[in-house]
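Please fill in the sequence for the structure shown.

STRUCTURE ENCODING:
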């Protein structure tokens, strides 16, 4: 029976932390904070449920690779011929929107610093994309691994300081701590336009299940250690726990410092959003908190930008190799590395184009990011089914299939994701619940 060892954990730690770095961005900084600002603690249960129901699907890539030695994309190809092309189509669209959205928010946050306040947020977003691209093109996986671990550590540390400073200072605002309802109530159909994006990236899109699977091969190559199931899942669970705790911290900060101002915080231009975010924190905690909140927020968004700019091109490059039957798509050869770098460059240019189109069309940061989040949620049931079906197929030895508890959680998760998707589509496009 395989066991955990300190040495094995140290050599395996990475893909799960990278997943946390990818997740702790728009969903936490924007959605969780706004959830607290608008509804206090009433959405804690929904956030925990979303994290719980997505857990078995996001874990699939880690377990599948650890027990089969194949990437989850190889599993998709072997399991059903439609899975890989479907993932490719959605990945190409969502990848561009997501990378451009998170880089835009990262650029917005920089406008809170004196030196960068003189630059347009769009120019800063372009700079963020270029810097992230250079890090990945020159430093490759090793740079991604080290920088993301440092950013997640900084983020968790600074967010905790902000939270406990708020608690200790007693500046908890005028809020009734209620975990079921609030005034206004979130449980109204008109709030679906907020709840769906909140769940879409909480803790991240379900298609992220592929990313740890691919990162595991790069981690193994850099450490000369192949993680067993226990080591790989320890890494994943640690990263997942960090995302859940951080989401609750951001919601609490939003509830304690901004309750009753959620609508105003998300209105206006993107620059006003970034300024409102910092201002509301500093008014409640103290002006000194600016030097905690700004670095923490920037760490959250830059880590998301960096990991997404690696993971989406990595996935697309792997799919290209598999569909063309050139290689396994695990970045084990020079030709695969060149192809990955090409896709990173293409994603940078595609994201820049999306940013310019958004600016020309007057699209706000709220519309940009929440649109990407909504798309991720509506596609979640498809990727959830693909992940569950592949893990519990003959491709994996029966002893590594999900047990009764995890299978039940999968089915409940599918009902949860599918039910909310149908409700949102019915309300948005067919007028369900709208008075005539």
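FILLED IN BY: designer on duty
SEQUENCE:
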């Amino acid at each position: 029976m395989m066991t955990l060892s300190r040495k094995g954990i140290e050599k395996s730690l990475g893909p799960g932390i990278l997943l946390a770095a990818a997740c702790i961005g728009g969903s936490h900084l924007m959605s969780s904070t706004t959830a607290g600002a608008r509804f206090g603690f009433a959405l804690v249960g929904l956030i925990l449920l979303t994290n719980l129901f997505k857990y078995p699907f996001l874990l699939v890539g880690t377990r599948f690779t650890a027990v089969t030695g194949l990437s989850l994309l190889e599993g998709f190809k072997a399991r059903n011929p439609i899975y890989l092309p479907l993932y490719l189509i959605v990945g190409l669209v969502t990848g561009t929107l997501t990378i451009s959205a998170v880089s835009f928010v990262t650029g917005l946050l920089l406008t809170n610093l004196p030196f960068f306040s003189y630059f347009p947020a769009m120019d800063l977003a372009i700079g963020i994309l270029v810097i992230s691209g250079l890090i990945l093109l020159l430093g490759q996986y090793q740079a991604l691994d080290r920088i993301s671990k440092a950013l997640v550590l900084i983020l968790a540390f600074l967010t905790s300081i902000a939270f406990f400073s708020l608690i200790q200072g007693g500046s908890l605002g005028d809020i009734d701590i209620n975990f079921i309802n609030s005034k206004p109530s979130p449980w109204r159909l008109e709030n679906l336009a907020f709840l769906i994006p909140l769940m879409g990236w909480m803790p991240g899109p379900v298609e992220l299940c592929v990313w740890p699977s691919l990162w595991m091969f790069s981690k193994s190559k850099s450490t000369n250690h192949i993680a067993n199931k226990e080591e790989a899942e320890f890494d994943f669970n640690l990263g997942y726990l960090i995302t859940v705790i951080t989401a609750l911290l951001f919601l609490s900060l939003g509830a304690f410092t901004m309750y009753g101002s959620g609508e105003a915080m998300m209105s206006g231009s993107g620059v006003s959003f970034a300024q409102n975010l910092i201002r509301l924190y500093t008014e409640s905690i103290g002006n000194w908190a600016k030097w905690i909140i700004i670095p923490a927020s920037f760490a959250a968004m830059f880590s998301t930008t960096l990991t997404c700019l690696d993971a989406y091109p990595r996935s697309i490059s792997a799919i290209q190799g598999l569909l063309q039957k050139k290689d396994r798509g695990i970045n084990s050869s020079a030709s695969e590395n060149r192809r990955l770098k090409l896709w990173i460059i293409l994603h940078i240019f595609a994201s820049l184009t999306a940013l310019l189109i958004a600016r020309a069309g007057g699209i706000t940061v709220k519309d940009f990011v929440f649109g990407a989040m909504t798309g991720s949620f509506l596609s979640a049931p498809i990727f959830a089914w693909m992940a569950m079906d592949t893990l519990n197929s003959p491709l994996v030895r029966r002893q590594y299939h999900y047990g009764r508890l995890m299978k039940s959680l999968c089915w409940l998760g599918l009902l949860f994701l599918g039910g909310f998707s149908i409700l949102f589509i019915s309300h948005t496009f067919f007028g369900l619940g709208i008075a005539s």
